[in-house]
Design a protein that fits this description.
The protein is mainly α and about 325 residues long. It folds into two domains: about 5-190 and about 295-325, Rossmann fold (3-Layer(aba) Sandwich); about 210-280, Tyrosyl-Transfer RNA Synthetase. The protein is built from 15 helices and five strands. The protein has helices spanning about 20-35, 45-50, 55-75, 90-100, 105-110, 110-120, 125-130, 130-140, 155-170, 210-220, 240-245, 250-260, 265-280, 280-290, 295-325, and strands at about 5-10, 40-45, 80-85, 145-150, 180. The chain has a three-stranded parallel beta sheet with strand order 1-2-3. Strand 4, helix 9 and strand 5 (about 180) form a beta-alpha-beta unit. Helix 4 crosses helix 8 (about 130-140), helix 10 runs antiparallel to helix 13 (about 265-280) and helix 11 runs parallel beside helix 13 (about 265-280). The longest helix is centred in the C-terminal third of the chain and has 30 residues, at about 295-325. The chain starts with 6 loop residues before the first strand and ends in a 9-residue tail after the last helix. The relative contact order is 0.14. Bound molecules: adenosine-5'-diphosphate and tryptophan (TRP). Adenosine-5'-diphosphate binds near residues 21, 186, 197 and 200. Adenosine-5'-diphosphate binds near residues 13, 22, 24 and 152.
């Protein structure tokens, strides 16, 4: 393979409604990267979601929701290959093979796994081997660049490790070691309680929330108890941290000035934030409503993306089967 067309790949789990932490931490960069030279592949990691979600109807619904969200937010299926992980069976096939080369101790060091155990969760094997499936996701397309948040760094290192082990064991460069591309443009987006915004903390503001539901979320953002008339420090406030994501520099400066001057309460800041969010996602909201009326189109995008991804995956998988001695008596179409 030449270096000319780099393959960019990333995935997102459909394990709940996407929130503004996901947007600024991941989705926005995915969409921006589709403009770069090279092939971009973005997928909905539904097999990964099974490690925490065991309700078929809900998983199906969330998968379609993520597809709608990405398309509404600007993912262009002409520029990026967009598909569901489950449309590429070679991924689970490769994951099994990688698992046979993966020391148990490597998984035991998984930060995400350890965190869940520490939090008292009784982890399933899927959660334990989650990074192996993620490695297969990446390696099956010979991905060069994997744009992910800081929290995914270890999984990319594990991917490189497993690719190296495979190549060493079977004696050639069958799998390509990816580079990670840590997305640094945004700090951790705080949730309504000031902790990292996350589905698991129940502190999210959904990208496509609107009306009363959005207002309720924004109004519930925790602030300190400085009285309305006193000056306030914008740099220690959760509302301002969110305002910074949505407002341009001059608007940020204007609002920061009001904080420092006093006579401006957190209630006022929340109203400004509400307006900013509504405006920022206005076009995407409109587009999503249109797409909702045309779900056949959305399914078609995933189908076409899946076909393309599957044929790329097969190119990588075939030599892997051969060298590992896995004989099969049929071929994927
Ligand atoms: P959650 O914590 O809600 O379950 P995920 O772990 O599924 O979110 O994250 C999906 C992507 O969104 C990852 O790339 C992650 O880095 C990014 N992300 C999630 N929450 C935040 C946040 N609060 N700030 C910045 N990025 C985030
Ligand atoms: N683990 C990633 C997350 O939670 C999602 C994911 C699955 C992924 N497979 C991937 C990201 C492959 C990048 C590449 O955000």
């Amino acid at each position: 393979m030449t270096d000319k067309a780099k393959t960019i790949l990333s995935g997102i789990q459909p394990s709940g409604k996407l929130h503004i932490g996901n947007y600024f931490g991941a989705i926005r960069q995915h969409i921006a990267m589709q403009e770069q030279q090279g092939d971009s592949f973005y997928f909905i990691a539904n097999y990964h979601s099974l490690t925490s979600l065991n309700d078929g109807k809900t998983l199906e619904e969330y998968t379609l929701d993520v597809a709608l969200d990405y398309l509404a937010l600007g993912l262009d299926p002409e520029k990026a290959t967009f598909f569901a992980q489950s449309d590429v069976p070679q991924v689970t096939e490769l994951a099994w093979i990688l698992g046979t080369l993966c020391p148990v101790s490597l998984m035991e060091k998984g930060v995400s796994y350890k965190d869940k155990v520490a939090a008292g969760l009784n982890p399933n094997i899927g959660l334990f081997t989650y990074p192996i499936l993620q490695a297969a996701d990446i390696l099956i397309y010979h991905s060069d660049i994997v744009p992910v948040g800081e929290d995914q760094k270890q999984n990319i290192e594990i991917t490189r490790d497993l690719a190296g082990k495979f190549n060493h064991t079977y004696g050639d460069e069958y799998l390509k070691l990816p580079e990670e591309h840590i997305v640094k443009s945004v700090a951790i987006v705080p949730g309504t309680d000031g902790r990292k915004m996350s589905k698991s903390y129940n502190n999210t503001i959904e990208i496509f929330a609107e009306g009363k539901a959005l207002k309720k979320k924004v109004m519930s953002i925790q602030t300190d108890s400085t009285p309305l008339e006193d000056p306030k420090d914008p740099d220690t406030d959760n509302v301002f941290a969110l305002i910074k994501l949505f407002a341009d520099k001059s608007k940020q400066d204007e609002i920061a000035g009001k904080y420092r001057a006093g006579g401006y309460g957190y209630g006022h800041a929340k109203k400004e934030l509400l307006e900013l969010i509504t405006e920022y996602f206005g076009d995407a909201r409109e587009k999503r409503r249109e797409l909702e009326k045309n779900l056949d189109y959305v399914r078609d995008v995933l189908k076409t993306g899946g076909e393309k991804a599957r044929s790329r995956a097969e190119e990588v998988m075939q030599p892997v089967r051969e060298v590992t001695g896995i004989v099969r008596n049929f071929r994927y179409p």
